[in-house]
């Protein structure tokens, strides 16, 4: 379906359901907005990228040294990965994405930043289940930072199978994939949850929940997401 104001760029069936990528012209913003829809639920939008970008900056700022190896869980529309690559200290970026359609969108350059993102030689996109990798007893390499933006929050999951990641055991398993001094950061659509901060404190010495606020042109007010940072 194509017209000046709306275009369905892709539709695919996935293990999580039907995924659609669409472009629509937003008269309020006076620009094109790209949206990913999972079944009937809005999953991602280029209208709201501030916190996704801050996930990269807040997650990398506490990491010391150069030649950093970074793992991002969840490719999405690519804004966290793009922000990671703005840091000259980053030597390599591995992005793990479970939905092949999302990887395909970027390889086909369907999104505004796809060409720039995929042209960076430091980037490697891996089609895999991030949570399964974290559960695995095999730790083939360690990362200086692990940044995750997959579920809506530590208590609202895209798939019930993800729930064990947000437990003390799941966080301890994830920490095995971090190099000494490594940092874990997580995006959330909800305000910082004291219960999840306690979970993180079972594995990390320094933990905080950062509120990231931004203008919302659709409501005329302010909206906010959260970033957990543990080091």
Structural summary, described in words:
This protein is an alpha/beta fold and 231 residues long. The protein has one domain (48-230): Vaccinia Virus protein VP39 (Rossmann fold, 3-Layer(aba) Sandwich), CATH 3.40.50. The protein is 23% helix and 38% strand. It is built from seven helices and eleven strands. The protein has helices at 50-60, 79-84, 100-107, 114-119, 130-135, 168-175, 194-201; strands at 6-14, 17-26, 31-38, 41-45, 68-73, 90-97, 123-127, 143-148, 178-188, 207-216, 221-230. The protein has a seven-stranded mixed sheet with strand order 7-6-5-8-9-11-10. A four-stranded antiparallel sheet has the order 1-2-3-4, with helices on one face. A hairpin with a 2-residue loop joins strand 1 (6-14) and strand 2. The longest helix has 11 residues, at 50-60. It is globular, with a radius of gyration of 17 Å. The model has no long low-confidence stretch (mean pLDDT 92).
Task: Please tag this protein with its features.
single chain; about 230 residues; alpha/beta; Rossmann fold; 7-stranded mixed sheet; 4-stranded antiparallel sheet; 7 helices; globular
Short overview:
With 231 residues, this protein is of the alpha/beta class. The protein contains seven helices and eleven strands.
């Amino acid at each position: 379906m194509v017209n000046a104001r709306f275009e369905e760029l892709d539709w695919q069936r996935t293990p999580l359901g039907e995924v659609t990528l669409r472009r629509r012209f937003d008269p309020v913003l006076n620009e094109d907005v790209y949206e990913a829809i999972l079944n009937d639920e809005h999953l991602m939008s280029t209208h709201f990228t501030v916190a996704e970008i801050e996930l990269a900056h807040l997650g990398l700022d506490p990491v010391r040294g150069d030649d950093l190896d970074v793992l991002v869980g969840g490719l999405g529309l690519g804004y966290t990965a793009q922000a990671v690559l703005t840091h000259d200290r980053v030597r390599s970026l591995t992005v793990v994405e479970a939905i092949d359609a999302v990887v395909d969108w970027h390889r086909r350059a369907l999104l505004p930043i796809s060409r720039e993102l995929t042209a960076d030689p430091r980037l490697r996109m891996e089609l895999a289940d991030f949570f399964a990798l974290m559960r695995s007893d095999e730790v083939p390499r360690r990362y200086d930072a692990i940044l995750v933006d997959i579920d809506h929050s530590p208590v609202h999951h895209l798939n019930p199978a993800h729930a064990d990641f947000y437990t003390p055991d799941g966080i301890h398993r994830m920490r095995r994939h971090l190099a000494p001094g490594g940092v874990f950061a997580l995006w959330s659509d909800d305000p910082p949850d004291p219960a999840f901060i306690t979970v993180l404190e079972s594995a990390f010495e320094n933990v905080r929940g950062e509120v990231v606020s931004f203008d919302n042109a659709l409501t005329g007010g302010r909206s906010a997401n959260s970033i957990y940072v543990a080091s």
